[in-house]
Sequence to fold (1457 residues):
Amino acid sequence: MTYAMQDAWGWSIAIYLFLGGLGAAVMGVVVITDMFRISKREHPTLVVWGALSSIVFLAAGSGMLFIHLLDHLAVINVLNPLVLFKKPDAWIGWGTQFIIWMMVWGFFYACPYLNKAKGTRDMPVIGKSDECNPLCKMMKLCLKYHRAIGWLTVVNAVGTVAYTGLLLQSFPAVALWHNPGLPMLFMVSAFSTALAYILLLQYLAIKEPDQDLRKLFERIDLGLVGLEIALVFFFVNYMLSGSESGLQSVNFLWNSWGWLLGFIVMGLIVPLLLEIGAVSGKLSGHAPVVMAAVLVLVGGFLLRHYTLVAGVYEYPW
Amino acid sequence: MAWIFPRLTRRSFLKLGAAASAAASPLLTSAPVKAALFEFAHPKREQMKAEVHQTICNFCSSLCNVNVKTLGEGETKRIVKLDGNVESTLNRGRMCARGQSGLYQTYDTDRLKTPLIRVEGSKRGEMKFRAASWDEAWKYIADKKKQANIQPWEWTSVGGWTSCVFYMNWAVPFAVSNQIPNLIASPMQHCVTTGHLGTDVVTGNFNIHDEILPDYENARYIMFVANNGSLGAVSTCRAIRFAEGRKKGAKVVALDPRLSETSAKADEWVSIRPGTDLDFMLAMLREMMTEGYYDLDFVRTHTNLPFLLYRDDKQQWQLLKDANGQPYTWDETSNAAVAMKAFANSNTMDASGKHILPAMQVAAGTQVDGKPVQTVFQAQLAEIGDFTPERAAKVTGIEADRIRRIAKEFGTTRPSLIDPGWMGARYNNIQMLRRVQAMIQTLVGGIDTEGGWIMSSEYRHKATKMLERMAKNEQATAPLVQTAGLPFAQLVVGVISKGENFTHGKPGWAWAWAEQQRAEGKPAVALPVMADTGFKETVEGKLSFKGEKYLARALFVNAANPVHHYFPDSHWKDILTNPAMELVIVSDVLPSDTTAYADVILPNSTYLERDEPAMYGNGVNHDLGLTTRYRAIDPLYDTWETPDIMLKLSEIISGTGDGFIGAMEALTGTPAAKVKSELAKLKAANVPSPFSAACRKVNMEMAAEEVGMTPDQLDGELRRRGVYLIESKDDLLAKHSMPRHQPVPTGSGRLEFFSSFFDSLRGMGMTAPNFNVLAGYVPNTIRSDKKPDEPLADNEFYFTYGKSPTVSHGSTNANNPILAGINRFKKDIYTGIWIHPERAKKLGIASGDLIEMENMVSGQKARGKAHVTNMIQHETVFMYSSFGTENPALTRAAGFGTSINKLIPYQVDPVVAGFRSQEFTLRIKKVEGEGVQA
Amino acid sequence: MTHYAMVVDLNTCTGCNACMAACAVENQTPVWADKWRTRVHDQEKGNDSANVARTFFPRLCNHCDIPACMTVCPTGATYKMDNGIVRIDDALCMGCQACVLACPYDVRYAVEYEDIHIAKSFYDEDVMKRHRPGVDKCDFCHDRVALGLKPACAATCTADARIFGDLDDPEDRVTKIVRSGKATPLMAHLGTRPNVYYIAEHREEG
Fold:
């Protein structure tokens, strides 16, 4: 028996998975928040900054994947959406299309808000667009189909989030990956990191009077972090028996400081406590929430990283 | 808890990082990346002309038949793949890793591409050369010869195994015609004259390369003793037959201190103490003889076991012979001693043709001609009477019952087979070990028969012809190619050992040295056949012959690498760097360690770039066939063929090449006039290496005539099939099996327990047990002062080495890029020093630790990485002998692994100067300190 | 129909590495970077001198009927031929290496730009079989097989330990061995339906 860990996918793919999940979830959250008029109003600033961040994250993440490719020209073969007719079973194909279309639709969804959102409304051209500006025509067109575009964005965003987990799930030899819990875990983590990022935006960049929304996001994130802790616990239980692959993965993770201290303690438990404190009002001020959000983001990356690293193959030779 | 398997470490992180940045920043600027990005596949390959050429592999003496696939034409023609020739019944379409990788020897970027002359002012060994033309190289040699006034006997010619197998018909006439009595042949002291001679004194075989291909596939019980080389490392014709045998269910037993590749395939690995195989085998022989585990009919009929012996005045065993020199046996029918023919394959008739039934034993007190007699059987049994399994158990570390059981299984399972063994020079007693193995094989009747040892048909064919000639009392017309077996060995010894065969009256320095040693009452080697014993002393001016100083001042090394092959490395480095050595010429295809010590390097073509000058037998094949090499591509570089190099050297040494060509005719029957006229034609046509081409043409004609074809027919057949089959194994065995259908080339024509070969050496006054006329005990002297079963010190180990499956002993093949890749993949196993965990633990040694080994006899030291493993007998360390190349011109091999000749001192046996290369123990310690990890 | 498969007999493999060399030359693999389409592991089994064994374990692509590598391939570069051979089309492969992670048998490796660059001089540009980087693995020497030859490894195996054949031919040696149950595939529980079968080493007690 030989145990081995893969070295084909390293930190760059971990970043891809992290930024992909984070970016897509941010997009999903801001678009839904706006579409459903949470707090009974539009959220142009949140949408614009959320969507733009999301696009940047996904571009950066996809760039990581692109750089990692062996034959960069052949990437054309996966950018062509028709490939899905030929290879409907491969998640990278779906993921690539989800990412592309989420970015496209997300941009169109945010587009009409560009002259309303804080930060962009004061910009030249964008903020001061009048009737004859082609940008304005596009804004109008987007606004006309805003809800449809919103749904297209959300579907592709959720698809992207799910894809990051499904991708690893499709590798059958590794117990840590090949289970339905992994997409769940990645999804929960993606939305948790997304809310953390949005809270950071709200507290540090946007600074609009949206305390109600912040409170809501803090509560949801608290729930998600709690759920994530539960899922990690389920994972450990699952892997402790049934396969050597799983057992070796747990063994590895539980001997890694980055996982234990970095992800479990600093990425989950500390933010959980900070958020409990903030939500219950025991901790006041921005600092606890901001700190929790930063830790959640770091934890989110560590989760992707350690999940990639700790996949153990058991070979019968 | 320690994390035991590799994780995504910092190293792979860095690697990934580097790869990513390399791809990102200079994406469109770096030339290779640009080329890779924008250059698409072109279908050139598909349009290229494909051809298959026939050749013979050149990486061991198994001589597999090979198909060479090329693409393209003319200058751009490229060899793309080698495959075993499926038409060949020898290797049956298969080839080992070395054979498969062979084309990358030809395409090795480190090859010798032009003649090289050592840079003025540099020292031998510094590998400082300047490129030269052939004319310059020849002029350098001629000038040096003249200036130093080098005499013919001062030359020494060193040949590797290919010199023997492919160019013996040139090498020997070259030496004889140029009055050079000094030949060193590299596999002799390591293998052929030690181990093989042990086998051969029983069977009468002796061949320049292999003579026995065991019929593993029909055997039901197979034993290997002190031998991994022939099977596991890898002789393809043996490996494929062994696999068949194993698939059919043969039981396999292997005696080896190491779990070798061969032992790994055995049902029973007998982890024996190094150097004690003879103890085991003597016990087995005794057990088989006392318990009757032998084929009575066979040994009675075809061996000299029923011959009668008596003790002479000196208490020496002598054959009882009649006035005509015919040996006696005891006929059970007439109950009387009867004389039989002196040379015959069987004992069924007395000298007058009357049927007899020879007795294996005679009653105590039996007298013939007034002498108390015993049969050879009785004398042999008495000789080893003390060697009980219990005694062997003490020495070998193997339980007596196990030895008994194996003896019984082997002796009662038919057909059973004990592999004769390769690489037979490790201990003083290895020759006797191989001899006893041959006797054991003889006891079960397994000689030249299905499931036993089957002779190479090329060799048997030669023997058959020779025996027919002998029966008609005819002389050989081409002795070198018409003499088979021990008579061939005796022929060679006869030529080089006697000064009267040369105009200058000097024998080879090895023989003169032995004579001088004997005269001074010092130990001497009886038959230093093509050995290096005395060479160093001769170079150093310590040899005199008939009152005159006998010097060795010029050296021609052809396809041999003594600096890496011979023991120790310093011995040959001393010879080569001695100021008295005026001229060193080395011919090779790659810059071996020895080339670094040359004055002139003559580049040779590789086997894929040349037509050979002769037709050859089909190696060790059971079927009789003819084969040769066809060049697949033109030589890539400015290289010459060996015969042409020898012709040119002859012109320099003797002033003309005529003597050389004349000697070829006298010794090999190649008509000189014809060769000369072809040579003139080809020279005029500016054909490269014209002498080789001329010989090829004449030899093709001769071979065609022999098989009743036109040269074109034979040539066409060989080009198509690679091998022309003349007669099958079954037909050959039915007609010519030795000794069932014809005598074996021993002194008596029978398989010999009482050795006529060693009988004939008794006149030389050799008293060492190695010269016993019967099988007997020969001590190993690993620890001269101690018995084998006395415990070793905590840090003391026996030393063993062996051949790896990818690279022969110290071969330049370590530089082959494909094989180098495999070796790196298996680096821990292939270059590690195997050491047992219990012993390693006591010394604080773990796998990967740097350790120092010190020879406890000679003080030689070497370092290597420990490979801690249960696959080694606990008192022993092992290392592969393939690595440790020093010459940096071999860019992939240099510095990879440790060479065994850093540890092995100069120790030789008294019979043929066989290397006692494992007769010492090592002191081992861990190397502590900084920088050790690197 | 044809359904190519291989049986590996661990009882006869002597670890001679001929298959590795033959494959490397035939398929021009980046041996300089320790990248091979097939490997033979040289392994020590057992914990003490009395029970130690040495096993040579050849491995290669298993040409699964349900290849996980093919499932995850986004471009369709990895595909299954009608004869059962799983191949990679290097014109389509962009080298995302998802297949490397998906394969349970560790038989896929990355051919990088640098490898292609080195190969041009090492294997000679004119006769190079691949000119683009991407993922590579054993393809049962599909081009040899198309010509009626055996894969390079099986053709040269000095121990007849690699037996190549057609499972759809009831008379084929491989079919007979597989039907007898003497040979079993690796990690069958993963549901990949591999087509490389192994005859286990026969070892007696004690």
Residues 211-239 of chain A form the longest helix (29 residues). Chain A has twelve helices and two strands. Residues 148 and 303 of chain A are 34 Å apart (CA to CA). Chain A touches chain B at residues 2-7, 10-12, 67-68, 72-73, 248, 251-252, 255, 308-309 (CB under 8 Å).
